[in-house]
Amino acid sequence: MYGMVNKAIQQMVTRDHGEDAWEAIKNAANVKEDLFLSNTSYPDSITYDLVDASSKYLNIDAELILIEFGKFWVLVTAMEGYGGLMRAGGNNLKEFLLNLPNFHTRVSMVFPELIPPTFEVHNIAVNSLDLHYITHRPGLQNFVVGLIKGLSTMYEVETEITLIANRDPDTGKGPDVFRIVW
Ligand code: HEM
Predict the structure, then answer these.
(1) Whose CA is nearest to atom 18 of ligand 1?
(2) What is the distance in A from the centroid of ligand 1 to the CA of 175?
(3) What is the residue with the minimal CA distance to atom 40 of ligand 1?
(4) Is the CB of 93 under 6 A from ligand 1?
(5) Domain at 95, CATH number
(6) What is the pLDDT of residues 5-55, one digit of tens each?
(7) Segment (H or E) for 69
(8) Are residues 100 and 23 part of one domain?
(9) Looking at 14, 40, 60, which one is the last position of a domain?
(10) Tell me: the pLDDT tens digits for 116-136?
(11) Do 43 and 101 share a domain, yes or no?
(12) Which structural domain range is residue 173 located in?
């Protein structure tokens, strides 16, 4: 993944737990880089190792770290760095979610080597919809939960998020389905 992802983890950990915690986590994850370049692609394993090491060092479940990171990604990384792109995503939560399937197409103009997830929207009702999340990357479902929570805060709406279906556990194929009610 692009370095901006690892850089965002660094910013979140440093903000919430300080520089020393970040240095310890980086060492535990065996990261040799002094800093991450936003526009350079790094192996996904670095990102997974950083989440893992953060979970162990901070004694916080990896699921919770991913949820917090999803919120941070929307409210800090995306809103501060790409506010225009985020605001163009919609005037309210429903509009943003309806546009989400196309969102990373625009992001790809900035990051041409992006390997983004796929989103589909189904069962659209007045106050709810089902968001299908498809990716080859394992274990990021709680990141998606955090992203939706971040969007809820951004649009100042209360949401209920339920994982109602999982991808095939053997092949990893098919969507994870989140029912979002607001
Ligand atoms: C301006 C805002 C955004 C930018 C710049 C951005 C950029 C990125 C980048 C660079 C990656 C790493 C993938 C790679 O490097 O190949 C990524 C992954 C991802 N993004 Fe976005 N993104 C943005 C907003 C969002 C939003 C709003 C959502 C969903 C609500 C989202 C969902 C995801 C997910 C789930 C992944 C993990 C990769 C996977 O599941 O395979 N992103 N994005």
Answers:
(1) 116
(2) 16
(3) 117
(4) no
(5) 3.90.1520.10
(6) 999 999 999 999 999 999 999 999 999 988 999 999 999 999 999 999 999
(7) helix 62-72
(8) no
(9) 60
(10) 999 999 999 999 999 999 999
(11) no
(12) 89-181
